Structures are given as C-alpha cells and as structure tokens.
Amino acid sequence: MFGPGLLFVVSGPSGAGKDTLVDALRQRMPRLKYSVSATTRAPRPGENEGEHYFFLSRDDFQKRIASNGFLEHREYNGNLYGTPRDFVEHTLTEGYDLFMKPEVNGALAIKAAFPDAVLIFLLPDKFSHLRERLLARRTETNEEIARRLEIAHSEMQYLRNFDYIVINEDRREEEAVNDLEAIVRAERFRIHRYDEDSIRKLEDS
Ligand code: 5GP
Q: Which superfamily does 7-195 belong to?
C-alpha cells in the first residue's frame, strides 16, 4: 500500500525553534529521514560536518549550483544555503519519508518542485520570543539578530501558502512536537496517496 515517501518541509522564522523540534521529532520517529543542507556559513560550536550541514566554500557552493546539484538554494543573511538534490530524490524514490527545514522562500521553491510536499509553518506563541531565543543562543551578533527579525516579519506574508501552522509555545515544546507528529501520521493516511492498484489489491485479498 505504500508509494513514494512523503516530503515534510518545516519552515518559519529563525528563532521559532525549527532545529530543536525537528531533532525531537526525529528521536521519536527514527524512520523519518532528514535532508542535510549545504551552507557557506561557518560552523557554530558543536555543529558537525554532514550532520548539521555540509559546510562548503563559496566557490564549491557555486560549482554545485552550476552542476544543478541543488533542488533550491538561497542567499540568507549573507550566506548561501541549499538543498542537495540527489539525496532528496533517492530517499523519496526508495519510499522513505523525509524532513527538511529551509527558510520560507526555500520551502516555497520545494513546493514548486514537489507539489505533493507538506509545508508546515512554525511560529512562536509571541513574536517577541524570536528575539529572546536568538539572544539566548548567543551565536549571532546584534546586527545579525536585527536582520533575522526583519526577515522574520517579511516571511509572514507567505504563511497562507503553507498547509499547516504549528505554534511552538514557550516552555511547551513537547506539545509542538506532538503536533508535528500528528501531522506526519495524518498525512500518511490521505486517500490520494494510495493508487487504484493498491486499493484493488486490498479489495481482492
Ligand atoms: P542558520 O544559519 O540559523 O542555520 O540558518 C539560517 C536559515 O537558513 C534558517 O531559516 C534555515 O531554516 C535556513 N536554511 C537552512 N538550510 C537551508 C536550505 O537548504 N535552503 C534554504 N532555502 N534555507 C535553508
């Protein structure tokens, strides 16, 4: 009864908690695959090559663009970020469900390439929490934080292009992870994902 894997795209403003929530979801649903992006940004303390990102020089990133190696790529706050094409295509073809967490324009580009992708917009319960979270993680300068907040406001205009909204309430992350899990489970049962052949086989069995 299973067709190609499902593609889940979690997006939303920087500081909404994408990284923490997607990590928690992957622990709960270990069969979900995760698409590691490439970036030209320098690694933060604790970030590992191939696990959090593939860290590339700008030159290598440009070469990958030229060889059509990305499904989508964006400049975000002075750095390049991109979704490697091969991994996503192979993983879905093999029937695995796959998660990724690009910024909002990247999410929309993914939807254009994979109209069946499920887009989830993640937001904090209060916009002011974005600033607090970015300050607390101490990985960006004040200017970078200001810039990320500006981008966050402009990203809100695309909210209605998404399929789901999940609110990551302060100190209630567990609930937001429950919500993400509920979306993944519900999407797997959608009728349009089952072709006539597999329904007929079920009927004939
Ligand atoms: P950060 O520097 O905080 O890791 O990421 C900055 C922004 O880039 C985040 O909003 C993150 O979701 C986004 N991002 C990470 N990987 C990709 C990607 O492959 N494509 C796009 N378009 N955005 C990405």
A: P-loop containing nucleotide triphosphate hydrolases (3.40.50.300)
